[in-house]
Amino acid sequence: MQYGLTDHQDMIVSTVRRFVENEIYPHEQHVERSGVVPPDVATEIKKKTIDAGFYACNFPEEVGGAGLNHLEFSLVERELGRGSMALTHFFGRPQNILMACVGDQRERYLLPAVRGERMDSLAMTEPGAGSDIRGMLATAVRKGGDWVLNGTKHFISAADHADFVIVFMATGVDENADGAKKTLTAFLVDRGTPGFTIRDGYDSVSHRGYRNMILEFDDCRLADEQVLGAVDGGFAVMNTWLYATRITVAANCVGRARRVFDLAVNHAAEREQFGQKIGRFQGVGFQLADMVTRIDAADFLTLASADRLDQGLLANREIASAKLYASEMLAFVTDAALQIHGGMGLMSDLPLERFWRDARVERIWDGTSEIQRHIISRELLRPLGS
């Protein structure tokens, strides 16, 4: 791994950071207070992203994307992490799993998503099955030549804007030496399909305006052409294309932490108490030192895991470490920054209380901290036969 960015990578960072500062920051307070992204603002962000050549930058050039590698895309996500997730959503990074599309699916789903003409959402989580993917109760069964889907998904991000949803359903049982395990299949489901309902989810304290939705399937019939990947091959599709999503969470956490740190260090350099700047007090200065050290460590962990993927190396443990450390680092940094600001840190006049609330969900979604620790320990022990 190289230490330091190339000129091209510096350009990516500076371009995306300017975009976030100019196009995202000005709308954050309105979204925070209303819980809604105005449609005209969403449209304008998407248009400007397309014009800048960054829409679907996580897709290869052969399908119309910018063709960024994992490291470069992590830099993009790091800078987007500085802004409101409800707004940066319209910067447009469709699910890479759409690369599994074949035949007519490419014209119907993949290419329109890359061009920004259709938006997607990914649905796996259920009320009774969060991290336990094989515990899914929602099913798809063959009836009369179609697939019939029944069940409920919840905590589905961005489904309020989605033109179609990529949904995983239980479709069978695999009998092996370890016992019976459910098999999963991915489906492409268009908004408006009979038997498919998208309704409002829950009010969350984290990432206001970036809404979670509930998806209900009631005898929703789909043709074979809407199976993404192989029947009962959901885990293979997942492991191929959703493998690196945890890097995105880690990168977002690093970007948000750096914005929070900038607020804290500037405040410490300007605020006076007892006749001197508070940054000169060891209790504050040492906190700043700990904050920036953890941020840098999380940054290097994240970029190193992305670089391993670019080299074609296995990176499951490294990605889990990055997601675990970066999300827990963000909790520490937002809390410390709020403490440095004192009572004003809790006031909505400053964005710190928002960052503090937003930080909490990062240790839960895309695999809890406990799941990441399980992955790390499993990867360490497996080669030893344990």
The ordered H/E elements are HHHHHEEEEEEEEHHEEHHHH
Oligomer: single chain
Low-confidence spans: none
Q: What is the total tally of β strands?
A: 10
Mean pLDDT: 95
Shape: globular
Query: Number of helical runs?
Result: 11
Q: Specify the helix fraction band.
A: 40-55%
Taking Cα atoms only, what radius of gyration do you get, to the nearest Å? Answer: 22 Å
- Backbone structural class: alpha+beta
Most strands sheet: 4 strands, mixed
**What is the end-to-end distance?**
31 Å
**Arrangement of strands in the largest sheet:** 1-4-5-8
Which range does the strand content fall in? 15-25%
How would you describe this protein?
This protein has eleven helices and ten strands. A hairpin with a 2-residue loop joins strand 4 (164-176) and strand 5 (179-190). The strands form three sheets. A four-stranded mixed sheet has the order 1-4-5-8. The protein starts with 6 loop residues before the first helix and ends in a 5-residue tail after the last helix. The mean pLDDT is 95. By secondary structure, the protein is α+β, with helices and mostly antiparallel strands. It has helices at residues 7-34, 39-52, 70-80, 85-88, 104-115, 234-241, 245-270, 282-310, 316-341, 352-361, 369-381, and strands at 120-123, 139-143, 146-157, 164-176, 179-190, 196-200, 212-222, 227-228, 272-273, 276-277. The protein is 47% helix and 18% strand. Helix 7 packs antiparallel against helix 8 and helix 9 runs antiparallel to helix 11.
